Amino acid sequence: MDFHVEFSPKHLSKKINHRHKLLLMGSCFTENIGDKLVAHKFPVLQNPNGILFNPVSVKEAIENYITDKVISESDLFYLNEGYHSWQHHSRFSDITKQDAVQKINASTNAAHLYLKETDVVIITLGSACVYELTGKAANAKAGSVAANNHKAPADWFHRKLLSNLEVIDLLSETILQLQQFNPFIKIIFTISPVRHLREGFVENNRSKAALINAVHTATENLENVFYFPAYELVIDDLRDYRFFAEDMVHPNYAATNYVWEKFVAACIDEPTKELMKLINEINAAINHKPFNPTSEAHKKFKQINCSKIKDLKTKHPYLNFTKEEQYFNC
Fold first, then answer.
1. How much is the pTM?
2. What value, to the nearest 5°, has the Cα angle with vertex 256 and ends 42 and 186?
């Protein structure tokens, strides 16, 4: 008897290779896939605003990249001994205004320049729930949406579930802005399988349903806009708590790897898959822990891997193996 219903995502018409520049943004699940792309030597820029969950914050971030928006110290607010931005993750926060502003503006400018040459944008949406700032929130326009709560008091926020039409409009505007700024860009939408149970079980399902419906409605019949079913692979294909971490909310290592394998099969071209296998050999060698680092056997092991790296660089000069060369003393 078969207790597992497996499905394979629809393949991209024009698949990804190592010459494509990739911009990934959205929920924490974005970074799980992004880290694997980085490990396999794809040119990747991840979350220039930090982790973003809702479509309003994603849209605002993309608008800032397109316009190369420069913020000032007056755009920040002070809380818990640090300065923060309502549009950015806390990794951009700092104990001084100057450092926080510098980090934010540098990241926005880097994203602006990168987006001009980006081939593929992968946007992972986590929730259709937004947290609007109230009149009690520090240095904020009431009704604006917080990308991160920065551990602020609960009465600074008002939770709202976006309607289907609101999400459709947000995604449609986002697609249009990206395509106008970079006419050759391809866009891949995914829905994060991470469950936002702090919003409630029913509310989480309503939120995911709004996102799924909106993505398909907004992307229907559009050229160079695609959907990758990460959410469905975890929730409907794997469909088991053993594929979740101890918090029962985040997909675990096995689930993430499963989605990654499906992504590679559907979105990466065949020659690149073969190249990724060779890169994996180098990655596995780096993770190898030698019993005796000074032994002749280990010296030979390093020489063999240096030869592999040299061969890969000769055949694929656009790949960067600086870190690996330093590790093996090539």
1. 0.94
2. 45
